[in-house]
Amino acid sequence: MVVDFHCHFWDLFSACSECLPEEGKSEEKCLEFFKSMLSRDCFYVNSFSGTEYRETISLLEKTSDFNIIPVFGIHPQNPEPSQMEILSGLIEKKMIYGIGECGFDMFTPEYASTLENQKMVWDFQLDEAVKKQLPMIIHVRKALPLIFGHIPDLKKVPAVIFHGWPGSPVEAESLLKKGVNAFFSFGKALLQGRKNSLETLKFLPPERILTETDFPFMTLKNQDFTRPVEIEKIKKFILDFKSLPESMFEEILLENCCNIFGLKGV
């Protein structure tokens, strides 16, 4: 059993639909193609935003035989305050297992121009995570100092997953030393040879390492979109890089999944 700690089902379904030829295309065939990409030997942590919520839920109802853990967050690239009400409703109805992806994105001038809204929705989501004791899945680009400014509250969150960890091993160590129950999720940045990713992976103990694809995003050169099966490439890379026994690492991933999201009897 392996765990993909960050993925986007609705976007994958859309990518599958685009790949099928127009002639004979139907919703049924798109769904069949989509389901053919999924594995029952994997837990998927599905992240979605308010803009795609209804479509995603409808899709998940048709894929109930797979291991899917829904989480919901207000993405920093679209920090729309009106989505706070949607998030509150999902939390109250216990329809999600975590909050995310959320965080800060200063990667482009366009994203940076929405910083005030990013701060507003971040504060709301962090407060909810603390009050309701829900894990957070964090998206952060060129904004780690903003995350470090919230260490006192992040220490109160049961678990904090850094999706596509962008920082250095020193920053990862600092978060842990300051008392944040942080986990660091790695995907195709490892296959691309990104220095920070490789150095942090080398430093971290296996118990703090998570695997993700971010499907259908985070593609390699000449790829149309990322497929769920590519989680095996990420896992193999980590196994080889860290010289880990496969069964031990899979057990750690599954145990982390259960502990982070409060799953029982898996």
UniProtKB/TrEMBL annotation:
GO molecular function, one term: hydrolase activity, acting on ester bonds
Residues engaged in binding a divalent metal cation 1: 6, 8, 101, 214
Classification via InterPro entries: DNase_TatD-rel_CS, Metal_Hydrolase, TatD-like
Binding-site residues, a divalent metal cation 2: 139, 163
UniProt keywords, alphabetically: Hydrolase, Metal-binding
One Pfam family named in its UniProt record: TatD_DNase
Entry superkingdom: Bacteria
Membership in a protein family: Belongs to the metallo-dependent hydrolases superfamily. TatD-type hydrolase family.
Protein name: TatD family hydrolase
Native species: Candidatus Gallitreponema excrementavium
Phylogenetic classification of the source organism: Bacteria, Pseudomonadati, Spirochaetota, Spirochaetia, Spirochaetales
